[in-house]
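Data deposition worksheet. Section B asks for the primary sequence of the deposited chain exactly as it was used as input, without tags or linkers unless they were present during the calculation. Section C holds the resulting structure in token form. Section D is free text for depositor observations; keep each observation to a single sentence. Incomplete worksheets are returned to the depositor.
Section A, Depositor: J.P.
Section B:
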Amino acid sequence: MRLEIHQTFGRIGLNIKRPEVVLNPDTPPLELEIAHPWIEIKRNGYSELHIDQSACFSDMGLKPPSEIGRQMYEWGQRDIMEGIARIVDEGNALGAIEMGQTIGDVARSAGDQPVEVTVAAVPSHRPEIQVVYHPPDIEVHLGEVKVRYRPWTVNTEVQLGSVRTYMTQYPSIQITAVGSVFDTRV
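Section C:
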């Protein structure tokens, strides 16, 4: 005789509900009141630039009428004095004919006047530059931030978790005898 044993193991199932925490806060606790900064700029007129180039133009021969008149006057005075001096020299030379001076010598000396040439870079003076600056009035208006703090609360809801167990398969043991119980051989 022989014994047969069949065994099945038990199985359990779990129903799990996770816990939950729900937070519902009130409105934010800070209230801000903001005044933005700003700047005000007032112009006090335009800046001025004065450039005097009269010395430069004078170096190049480009002069205002008043200066041209003055210069012509000076040249005229000089030419008159030189002319009188030349005429006196010629008269003195002709008056000294007895010393061997001839009219041809006097004429030749009048034509032998040297020519003066001047080479220069013009203008030799710089222009006079003057800047009159009128600074603007700048007014800065400061901003500000007002902060109001209010205590706040948080509404909390808690849902507890749970675990429920149940049997999906119960354990069992089955024992059976197989074969005959008596020996019939003699």
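Section D:
The CA atoms of residues 39 and 140 lie 5 Å apart.
The chain is about 25% helix and 40% strand.
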